[in-house]
Amino acid sequence: MYKLAFFVPESHLETVKAAVFATGAGRIGDYDSCCWQSLGQGQFRPLAGSQPFLGRQGEVERVAEYRVELVCADDLIRPAISALRAAHPYEEPAYDVWQLAEL
């Protein structure tokens, strides 16, 4: 089992979650579409060669973003990440993946 966390602007929150959930990620027992989300502020500076969805090259950008966390079965983590990357508006979406211990 894995835990996937990603950051997404509010404008694409539901679209990206739906794409990830469509892979089967976010299932806990008899429940699906399970996640935790919290609003925060992301910061980045697009460098030369980038094509930012928000902001301008060379300038620091701050944007309201959600951190979304969910669990994902071993065989679904790669499809979930692929779906996340395909649905996300950023050319380089930020995400973390942790393998969970079985107790």
From TrEMBL:
<dbReference type="InterPro" id="IPR036069">
    <property type="entry name" value="DUF34/NIF3_sf"/>
</dbReference>
<protein>
    <recommendedName>
        <fullName>NGG1p interacting factor NIF3</fullName>
    </recommendedName>
</protein>
<dbReference type="InterPro" id="IPR015867">
    <property type="entry name" value="N-reg_PII/ATP_PRibTrfase_C"/>
</dbReference>
